[in-house]
Amino acid sequence: MKATTYFKNKMSGNNFLLFVTISMFLLMYIGGILVYSSQGFGTMQTFLNMLIDNAGLIIAASGMTVVLITGGIDISIGSVVGLVCMMLAHSMENLGMSASLSIALVLLFGIAFGTLQGWLVAYLKLQPFIVTLAGMFFCRGLTAVISVEQIAITSNTTFLAMAHKNIKILFGATVNKRGIKLYPFVHPSVIIALVALVCVWYVCRYTKFGRSLFAVGGNEQSALLMGINVRKTKMLAYVLNGFLASLAGFVFCLNTTSGFVEQARGFEMEAIASAVIGGTLLSGGVGTVIGTFFGVLIKATIETYIRCNGTLSSWWNKIVLSALLCFFIVLQSVFATLKEKRK
Amino acid sequence: MQKQLISSPLVVSLKAATKKQLFLPIFALCLMLLINVLITPSFFKISIQNGVLYGYTIDIINRGSELIILAVGMTLVVASSGGADISVGAVSALAGAVCVRLLGASYDSYATPMLLAILAALVAGLACGSFNGFLVAKLKIQPMVATLILFTAGRGIAQLISAREINGNMVPGQILYVRMESFRRIGGFFPNVVIPTPVFIAVLFVLITYFVLTKTAIGLYIKTVGINRKAGRLVGINSVLVMFFCYTFCGVSSGLAGVIASSRIYSSDANNIGLYMELDAILSVALGGNSLGGGKFSLIGSVIGALTIQALSTSLYAVGVTADQIPVYKAIVVILIVAIQSEEFKRWWSLIRLHRQAKKAVAV
User: Fold this and answer.
1) What ipTM does this complex have?
2) Is A312 on the interface with B (CB under 8 A)?
3) With A196 labelled, which of A1, A67, A323, B7 sits at a CA distance of 20 to 30 A?
4) Three-class SS string for chain B?
C-alpha cells in the first residue's frame, strides 16, 4: 500500500516524463540490437560512438536545459557552435595561435556573448526568442565574415592530438577475425562532455544558484517574494549557457577539425529536442540534466538506426527528431491540461 | 522661461506626428532611401530596357514582393499570438519544392497544369500553417517552439520532395529545374507588361488582406485576442479559431512567397529558397511599428517595413557585403528596434527626462 502511494507520488507528472524517456531509450536500444545485430549494433563501441558523435550536443543540451528551467530559451547555440569552430580554425590555421590560447579565447567569447544575451533578456525584459533569434543570425553572419571558405585544421599538432587521441576502456573488448583483441575507445571530447554534464547536474541540484533557477522558472513572482534576485539568476543562466555553448563548439570542432559556414545548422533544434524529450518543461521550473542526457541518447539511437539501414536519406534524421519533439511537446501539453483540470 | 513653455504650432504638430505609429516606418524608409542615394547617385533613375522597367527602386519593389507577402502573414501571427512564426522560410522552400515537382522536373515525369501546381503549393503552405496553428492555438505551445519544428523539419521534407530520377532511382535532395516557359512569368514579366508580375501579386495580396481585415470583423477579433485572450473569450470571441486562422493564413502567404521565389530562379532549391527570410519578416513587422508582444497592428506599417528591409539589403549589397554576411547587420537592427520598443527602455528614458526636468526646476 505504502509502496504504491510512494510510487504514485514519484510518478505523478514530471517524473513520469523522465520515466517515459528512459524506458523509450531502452526499448529503442534493445530493438536496435535485435534488428541490426549483424551490423554490430550491440557492441560496446557502437554505444561509445554514439557518445563520441554527440559529445558536443551533450554539453549544449545541458546548457539549454539550464535556460529552459528558468523559462527562457536560446536558439542561438547552433550558430555559436558554428562560429566557435570557425574562430578556432581561423585562429590556429591563419593566425598561427597556439591551441590553448585560441580555446581560451573562444570560451571567453562564449561567456561574453551569453552575458550580452542574458542582459538583454533579464534586464531589458526582451522576449528571449527574439533576442536569441537575432543572436543566431548574428553569429551565423559573423562566421561568414571570418571566412566563406571551409578552413580545415591541419597544422596545429596539439589540437589534432587532442582530437584523435584514443582512450581505451579496459572492458567489453571484442576479438576481430585475425585474433587481435580490440579494446573499445573514446576520444577526450567524451570525457569533457561527461565532466561538464556532471558539473551542471551538481550545480542545478546542490548549489544556491541552481535551486534559485528552479524557483525563478516555477514562478517568478514567488521567487521575487522569496528574496531571490530574479534578474541576476536569469542572466547567470544565459552566461552559463553561453559558456557551455562555446565549450560545445570546441568539442564539436574536435570531431570535425574544421570551420565552415554551414556547420552545426539545426543544432539548436537538436539541443531543445533532447532537453524536451528528457522531460524538461518548456514552461520552465522543471527539468534535469540526466533526462537531457537520455534525450541525446535517443537522438543518437535514431541516427544509428538510419545509418545501419543504409537506404534512408540523412534528411530523415531531422524529420524524425522533429516528429519526436512534436510528440513530446504534445505530451507535455496534455499533462499540463490534465493538471489544471485536477485543480 | 516663458518662451520655452509656449511651443510653436509646428513643434506641436511635429510632436504629434512622432507619436503616430506610422512615423517610425516612414522615417526609417526615408532614411534608407537617403543612404541609398548617397551610395549610388543613380538610385532613383528608372528606364525602360528590353521593354521592361529597369532601375534600383523597381528592383527593390520587385525583390521585396515575397518579403511583403511574408510580412503581411507574419503581422497577423504576431498580432494574434504575441509570438512569431519562424518556419516561414522553410515552408516557402517546401511549397516551392511541391510546385516544381508537380510541374515536372524531367521530361517524362508529371506535367501538371500550372494553376493546379500552384494551388497544390498553396495547399502545402496551408497544411503547414494549420499544423503550426493547431500546436499554438489548440495545444497552447509557445509559438516559436511550435514553429521551430517546421523550421527544422520543413527543409528536410522539401529535400525529400525534391527528388529526381537518376539511373532508375529516385534520389532526394536534388535541385529541380522546371521545363515550362510560362512558369517564368510568375517571377518575371508577362509579355508587353512593363511592371514585374511579383509586384502585381504582392499588391493584390496586400489589398485583399487589407479589405478583409477592415471590412469584416476579423481584424478587430485579431486585435482583441492579441491584447487579452481571456477578455476576448469573455465577449464571445473564439480565440482558438482566430489564432488558428492567423497561422493558417501565414502558411498560405509563405506558400505564395515560395512559388514566386522558385519561379524567379526557375527551379526549386530546398536549401536556399527563403533562407534568412524569417528574420527579415519579423524585422519588417517590428520596423512597421508593431509591438512584437501582440495586439494592435498596422498592415501598411509592415509593408513599409518590408520595403525598408529590402532597401537595406540592396544598399548592403551595394557596399559589397555578401548574402551570408548580411544577417550580422540585420540582427543588430532587430535588437536595437526591440530594445527601443521595450517597456524597460521607455521607463529608463522617462526617468532620465524626469531627472533633467528636476535639474532645470532646481536651477530656476
Assistant:
1) 0.82
2) no
3) A323
4) CHHHHCCCHHHHHHHHHHHCCCHHHHHHHHHHHHHHHHHCCCCCCCEEECCEEECHHHHHHHHCHHHHHHHHHHHHHHHHHCCCCCCHHHHHHHHHHHHHHHHCCCCCCCCCCHHHHHHHHHHHHHHHHHHHHHHHHHCCCCHHHHHHHHHHHHHHHHHHHCCEEECCEEECCCCEECCCHHHHHHHCCCCCCCCCHHHHHHHHHHHHHHHHHHHCCHHHHHHHHHHCHHHHHHCCCCHHHHHHHHHHHHHHHHHHHHHHHHHHHCEECCCCCCCCHHHHHHHHHHHCCCCCCCCCCCHHHHHHHHHHHHHHHHHHHHHCCCCCCHHHHHHHHHHHHHHHHCHHHHHHHHHHHHHHHHHHHHHC
